[in-house]
TrEMBL record:
The active site is at residue 325. Pathway: Amine and polyamine biosynthesis; putrescine biosynthesis via L-ornithine pathway; putrescine from L-ornithine: step 1/1. Pfam families: Orn_Arg_deC_N. It comes from the Bacteria. The modification N6-(pyridoxal phosphate)lysine is found at residue 48. Its cofactor is pyridoxal 5'-phosphate. It comes from Paenochrobactrum gallinarii. This is ornithine decarboxylase. Belongs to the Orn/Lys/Arg decarboxylase class-II family. CDD domains: PLPDE_III_ODC (cd00622).
Length: 377
């Protein structure tokens, strides 16, 4: 839902063109909600979700740590007021010179998922703490993150053993159950694998201390999602099940769950047409599409809530597309989107739940359309 602050901003400022408006009050509420739901876990905000300086400064002031994917994101977190000991270099794919640059900034916590990455860190950031990412099935996630990142649990044992042999601090294990994860049991399955890695290594005298439970915490789009409290209870139960009374340190990395529902994109209907006189499905073209910030509509994975000034009129399904000269710039076609029949050229619509993974996906002015403007209030 667009907050009253967002609605008032749009009504008074009347920004031209598509834009994201993000309400910091909602971000603050989300952060405090995660703190309450998982009080024993350190929160590492996933900067990639929305790196707006205002968001980073707010979270830094609240005590948040930061999960970063590049040296540029590390520097953003530092500029926002975070200290290096509150930053994790969470990308498992890093150039050795970038590892060295991060280390020079004081960062000494790195993600790995293979021995080759461990060797780079041993050379460029000696003595650092490393955690190994294990593969998960991602079942239940609307935006799965399997295969590209992580290794099977048995290999994680080898990776962390190698880290210790090379003088690094074998700190722990991480996983990511997939973005927009609505299956509460996903963390149970991942923690079962994680505990196996802990048990195998303790036999060799390698005592891991930390579990990074990643992100995956959802925001509401068209369907309701479990509360942060429900996730917290499920995760605590799984931790107790697999680690007993010897609970490890834990980290969570919310991104979408921190900022997704804080933002709304204002867009405009550019064209409503049909492909034939007897075509019963309209095509509705907006001034924003996959290349303007809605990349997560790829394969129709994320279905955003769209609010129009004509809601309440008769609804019919339509194909929803963006404005660019690329045939891939179609958001919803396999599963057409219901919109009012009376929707007309020039109508403004609100695309809700768009505070995460929109501005950063629109960084290139494809077709000359400027990157998505962002207003943080």
């Amino acid at each position: 839902m667009a907050t009253q602050r967002i609605i008032d901003f749009l009504d008074t400022r009347r920004p031209e063109g598509p834009c994201l408006v993000l309400d910091l009050d909602v971000v603050r509420e989300n952060y405090l909600g995660f703190e309450k739901a998982l009080p024993e876990s350190r929160i590492f905000y996933a900067v990639k979700a929305n790196p707006a300086p205002e968001v980073l400064r707010l979270l830094a002031s609240l005590g948040s740590c930061f999960d970063t994917a590049s040296v540029a994101e590390i520097e953003m977190a530092l500029d926002a007021g975070a200290t290096a000991d509150r930053i994790s270099y969470g990308n498992t794919i890093k150039k050795e010179r970038d590892i060295a640059r991060a280390f020079a900034h004081g960062v000494d916590l790195f993600a790995v998922d293979c021995v080759e990455e461990v060797e780079k860190i041993a050379r460029a950031a000696p003595g650092s703490r490393v955690f190994c990412r294990v593969l998960t099935d991602g079942e239940g996630a609307e935006w799965p993150l399997s295969r590209k990142f992580g290794c099977v649990p048995a290999m994680a044992v080898d990776v962390l053993r190698s880290a210790k042999e090379l003088g690094l601090d074998a700190y722990g294990v991480s996983f990511h159950v997939g973005s927009q994860q609505t299956d509460l049991s996903s963390w149970d399955r991942a923690l079962a694998d994680t505990s196996m890695v802990f048990r195998e290594l303790v036999k060799e005298g390698v005592n891991l201390r930390m579990v990074n439970m990643g992100g995956g915490f959802p925001t509401r789009y068209l369907s309701d999602v479990p509360t942060a409290q429900a996730y917290g209870m499920a995760i605590f139960d799984a931790l107790s099940k697999y680690f007993g009374n010897r609970l490890p340190e834990t980290i969570i990395e919310p991104g979408r769950g921190m900022v997704g529902n804080a933002g709304v994109i204002k867009a405009e209907v550019v064209l409503v047409s049909r492909k034939a006189d007897n075509d019963n499905v309209r095509w509705v073209y907006l001034d924003i599409g996959k290349f303007g910030g809605l990349a997560e509509t790829m394969d129709e994975a994320i279905r955003y809530q769209i609010v129009t000034p004509r809601d309440g009129d008769e609804m019919q399904p339509c194909v929803l597309a963006g404005p660019t000269c690329d045939s891939a710039d179609v958001m919803y076609e396999k599963n057409p989107y219901p919109l009012p029949v009376s929707l007309s050229i020039g109508d403004e619509v609100l695309i809700e739940g768009t505070g995460a993974y929109t501005t950063t996906y629109s960084a290139v002015a494809f077709n000359g359309f400027e990157p998505l403007r962002s207003y943080v209030i």
